[in-house]
Amino acid sequence: MMSRFYRHFRMTEADAAEFAAQRLTLFAGARRLEAKEIGDGNINYIFRVVNPENGVSAIIKHADLGTRSGTRILGVDRSRIEAELLKLEGELAPGLVPRVYDYDPVMACRSMEDLSDHRILRYELIGHRTFPRLAGDISDFLVKTMVPTLDMVMDPIEKKELVKRYINPRLCQITEQLVYTEPYTGKPERTRVFPPNAEFMTKELFGDEELRLEVAKLKYSFMNDAQALIHGDLHSGSIFVTRDSTKVFDPEFAYFGPIGYDLGNFVGNLCFARANAQTTMGTGPAQDGFIGWIDETIVSTVDLFKRKFLAQFKASVRDEMGMVPGYAEWFLDGLLADSAGAAGLEINRRLVGVAQVKDITGIADPELRARAERVLVRAAKRYIKARAGHVKGEDFRTTIEEAAAAPDSH
Ligand code: SR1
Ligand code: MG
After folding, report:
1. Which amino acid residue places its CA nearest to atom 5 of ligand 1?
2. What's 119-405's CATH class?
3. 5, 125, 165, 249: which one has the fewest Cβ atoms less than 10 Å from its Cβ?
4. Which pLDDT tens digit goes with each residue over 7-17?
């Protein structure tokens, strides 16, 4: 019988089960497969496929031509980029990404390890659970996956070939609009402002010309600074965790960009968890413990990143100008400033942009949510405007800690 999967179409659960039976060797001989669509993101369709007779399972991530809402045409090249990135990252940072079983370019399906024993970090943080490995694993992931594609490390011809291979214009455009533009122009059709903060956001984000200029500079860097092959969307919904395992997934936004975009995105998402805990937990030892762990994770992620980055860079640099004393430290300082900027950008866009986060939208009391947003915006503005002063973990912690402790003068 001829396969139905020779031409791309939007797959249903039944299609995914049939596709898996034909395509994936781990289901060889299965009499029947069950598929359920479990995606809760904005872009792709995620099917969990199970053989009910032996419990063997896999995830099939399927790309349609546009977003799930149909409002944006993306093409399907992002599925190739994601499949290739997961394989590459798996080689560079073993154990820190899901295993890829298969990539089908026609149906734009990447089939991978089912990590149902893991949980999405964002929801674990909303539940105020802590993960002792997180700072070590994320700093490892960042350094191990990004240092090899730096200019001073990689062969320059190979690097430019890779820049071409991972040009990702449609997905970068989403970030350029949602992160670097819309939260600072305030067009009602492209922003979602929580009504109690309408006046505050108009003044602090849409109307702050100094801030807008700094964001414009950061946007230019995002569009031009092909430092390394970055993940491109490293928020807490792109990380699976258990107590003793961390897996970074969803690198469909990957491209050659500024390393700080990833580190800053991660820090910004820890700030959401902190604001949620400060608002919803009630004061006491449980809250102190959780916020203490968040603060410690911010500090350790940055400081471990710095230490590991310098060590791996110095061990792998090939360009003789990259070996000039002071170069690695200069590069690292710039990267940390970019990270602070990216943390601020991620915070602002999740508060007033079209893609918001449950850590904040889930705060039921309107006054507490409004206050949490104002704390976050104050921290975000300092991350962006004073980014050059963020050179170590403590600086990142101080910014969010002081914003949280400051009187709310609104
Ligand atoms: C239309 S996509 C909205 C957001 O979801 C992704 O995970 C990215 O963060 C993007 O900005
Ligand atoms: Mg995503």
Report:
1. 42
2. alpha beta
3. 165
4. 999 999 999 99
Q: Give the span between the Cα atoms of 35 and 18, in whole angstroms.
A: 9
H/E run at residue 255: strand 255-257
Superfamily of segment(s) 13-112: Phosphorylase Kinase; domain 1 (3.30.200.20)
Q: Where are the domains of the chain?
A: 13-112, 119-405
- Cα–ligand 2 centroid distance for 409 (angstroms): 36
Q: Which of 40, 73, 178 to mutate to test the pocket of ligand 1 (most atoms within 8 A of CB)?
A: 178
Per-residue pLDDT tens over the stretch 236-268: 999 999 999 999 999 999 999 999 999 999 999
Contacts of 172 (CB under 8 A, 6+ apart): 222, 223, 232, 253, 255, 257
Burial code (b: 16+ CB inside 10 Å, e: under 16) for 96-118 equals bbbebbbbbeebbbbbbbbbeeb
The per-residue pLDDT for range 189-242, each reduced to its tens digit, is: 999 999 999 999 999 999 999 999 999 999 999 999 999 999 999 999 999 999
